[in-house]
Amino acid sequence: MRRNRSSLTSDLGFLAFLVLIFACIVYIAGSPDHYIQNIIILNVSFILALVTYFTTVTAGLTLNLAFVFGYGFFVVYQTVTQGASIGVDTYFWLIMTPLLTVVLWVFTASTRELQAENERLLKRTNNLAAVDENTDLRNSISFQKDASLFTGISVRYKIPLTLLVVKVKYWNEIRRLIPEEQLSEAVYDVSQLSQSSIRTNDALYLLDKEDATWGLLLFTDREGAKIVIERIKQRLQELNDSEFSGKYKVNLGLKIGAVEYAADTIENPLDFIVQAKKELEYDV
User: Fold this and answer.
1) Per-residue model confidence (pLDDT) at position 86
2) Orientation of helix 140-157 relative to helix 269-278, angle to 10°
């Protein structure tokens, strides 16, 4: 109902805009002696209306107020210096310019509302999305949900659970060396490397795509996690020698931090990540 009302308002604004444009055409055609002057003022009116569309109606009306004072000063100047009379037609642009601004604002109101709604939906989709669209990996939202489940299983069945946080070394510098179109591909390749280094019952997450950071939840203790770390680094070295150096013109390096879950020291999934990231400082 609200959208139909907004659409009706926009349609009425469009019709009013056409009527005003027709009135401007008739007025300009009926004043051939001031043709150039009227064309200039009409262009100024359109510019003010466009500024209003890209800013706010308040800014547009403020500019229109400045135009009214400027045009009024111009009319007074003509009256004093040239002895021109002030007729009804003098007030045409003083009224028409603000009207064009307001009517265009009403006409485009529905479009602006749709754009705002689209932005809200995109943000909501991004916040609710549990899988990265490029790598098909679960993201930090999935991690928070899964970590609660995994930690519960770990405590209940006394199975050790370790989180590995994997980060590409010098990623900010590498971003400047790799073309933009290859950045997503590099993230995907490292994701595949990590995925191939763990068991099927372990879980891999892309925690931060912009900073190239992954999380691996492993049902193992710290000693078992060390085996996975060595496996990942060995696999990376092999790929650097055979594929990565030629593909990206740089050798990729990884920093890996590991933390074993302990219910008394780790309060929530975010705390789990924070503690694992602290361990990255010791992997140089």
Assistant:
1) 67
2) 100
Give mean pLDDT, residues 71-80.
Answer: 80
Q: Could you count the other beta carbons within 10 Å of the beta carbon of residue 191?
A: 22
Quote the tokens at residue 50. 């466009």
- Does the pLDDT at position 121 exceed 80? no
Burial 164-183 (b: 16+ CB within 10 A, else e): bbbbbeebeebbeebeeeeb
Q: Where are the domains of the chain?
A: 2-119, 133-282
- 218-229: per-residue pLDDT in tens? 999 999 999 999
Tens digits of residue pLDDT in 253-278: 999 999 999 999 998 999 999 999 99
Q: What Rg, from alpha-carbon coordinates, does the chain have?
A: 32
**Mean pLDDT value across the chain:** 84
Strands 203-208 and 162-168: unpaired
Rounded CA-CA distance 226/255 in Å is 13
Indicate the CATH number for domain 133-282.
Answer: 3.30.70.270
Separation CA 235–CA 9 (nearest Å): 63
Predicted confidence band of residue 249 (pLDDT cuts 50, 70, 90)? confident
Place of tokens 């996690």: 225
User: Distances in Å between the alpha carbon of 23 and those of 17, 52, 68, 102, 282?
Assistant: 10, 21, 19, 16, 76
Q: How many CB atoms lie within 10 A of CB 46?
A: 16
In angstroms, rounded to a whole number, what is the distance separating the alpha carbons of residues 178 and 19? 55
- Look-up of token digits 């990942």: 232
